[in-house]
Amino acid sequence: MARKGERVVHMGRPISFPVALLLVAALVGFVRRCDGGVTSSFVRKAEKTISMPMDSDVFRVPPGYNAPQQVHITQGNHVGSAMIISWVTLDEPGSSIVLYGTEKDMLDSHAEGRYNQYTFYNYTSGYIHHCTIRRLKHDTKYYYSVGIGLTARTFWFTTPPSVGPDVPYTFGVIGDLGQTYDSNATLTHYESNPEAQAMLFVGDLSYADNYPYHDNVRWDTWGRFVERSTAYQPWIWTVGNHELDFAPELGENTPFKPYRHRYHVPYRASGSTSPFWYSIKRGSAYIIVLASYSAYGMYTPQYSWLEEELPKVNRSETPWLIVLVHSPWYNSYKYHYMEGETMRVMFESWLVQNKVDVVFSGHVHAYERSHRVSNIAYNIVNGKCQPVYDESAPVYITIGDGGNIEGLANEMTEPQPSYSAFREASFGHAIFKIKNRTHAYYAWHRNHDGNAVAADSVWFHNRCWKSADKNECSV
């Protein structure tokens, strides 16, 4: 039952006439079930979501004077041959140089970055360094070192293969993480899944704004907490509402100030004018990041950028088209209900026209997967205002269940709407495993299960490649 949405993403393959008859029958069964999908029978024990104390091991400051901390990496250009290395030093600026190479004991290349600092209310940040290392070889393990002398620290990462249609690649997916005991369980569970090579993070990082006076020390603790993953594999950042840090009552009138200083992305490489919306290619995937909390109406910079960006996607090169956005467009929980509606109205038809494969979002602190549906036929007079099955539409996945301090969204709308394939109020993470140009496997893992257990899973069949030798999306 947990996988009945598989029929939706399987449809559209070349089939024989007898198989077609069977699929017609299957479709009738799907239509009959459109009064709702699966609401999981798993019930998580009601527990308060508690912040980890400041002296927790996961927040420990690295030993030594001015030792680099909060190390994190993200893709540094459009095609994956560069990496942005970021870290913080607390005592003094130190060096912004990164040493790197393909052998741990021979870091024979270097790149020099820059550092910045910011104040927020009564807080002054450490020295935040960003350095982009370029002209990296694809599919290669690199070691890199930041810091000076005895307190220098060495990490490693692996670059993605060259962009191509049959490049296998596995992404992790997490949203709304925070820094509670449940957050730690989510990250630990994700780390126990060894296949993921990069993280698609759908927004709401530290939840510092949930602490008194937007306590920016909680940005530092969060950076140290996630370093065990972010220093070794790139996290692709999406901005959420908890990154706004807009607090006029504290004299802080610049939205996103801490986030913009701490987390850099390669937005200019895709022609964007803002770090809140951008795109990258990675393996056989084209990833578009959108901003729920920046203007997106007609003629705004984000609208104009997306309008020009989607036609650039070459599905012969990157057959998998993934969109990240914080606020979900389809949501059957009572929390944040309809908050993504205006953005859906603006952009949904574009995503359907371009056969986007999947849209990942967060914001709602639970898990939900939709069928392939769209709601684009309504024209103010025809009354067609209900989502309908649409083979060209994306699957919408809400995964705002990282473990944040606000707890789970456990109240659902009833009956379960027809667009909803599976939903459950539990903490967890997901894996999106691209096999080749035609197939990808998706699985959601709740924290309460072993790392090999998938609480919800589905095979994706790429609509642009209905067979291995025929590109149906070419113009």
TrEMBL record:
Alphabetical keyword list: Glycoprotein, Hydrolase, Iron, Metal-binding, Signal, Zinc
All residue ranges annotated as the Calcineurin-like phosphoesterase domain in the record: 170-367
UniProt GO molecular function: acid phosphatase activity; metal ion binding
Assigned EC number: 3.1.3.2
Residue stretches making up the Purple acid phosphatase C-terminal domain: 393-451
InterPro entries: Calcineurin-like_PHP, Metallo-depent_PP-like, MPP_PAP, PAPs-like, PAPs_C, PAPs_N, Purple_acid_Pase-like_N
Coiled-coil annotated residue ranges, if any: none
Protein's recorded name: Purple acid phosphatase
Signal peptide: 1-36
Keyword check for Zinc: yes
Organism from which the protein derives: Canna indica
Catalyzed reaction equations: a phosphate monoester + H2O = an alcohol + phosphate
EC category: hydrolase
Domain of life: Eukaryota
Domain (Purple acid phosphatase N-terminal): residue spans on this chain: 68-159
Keyword Metal-binding in record: yes
Family as reported in the entry's similarity comment: Belongs to the metallophosphoesterase superfamily. Purple acid phosphatase family.
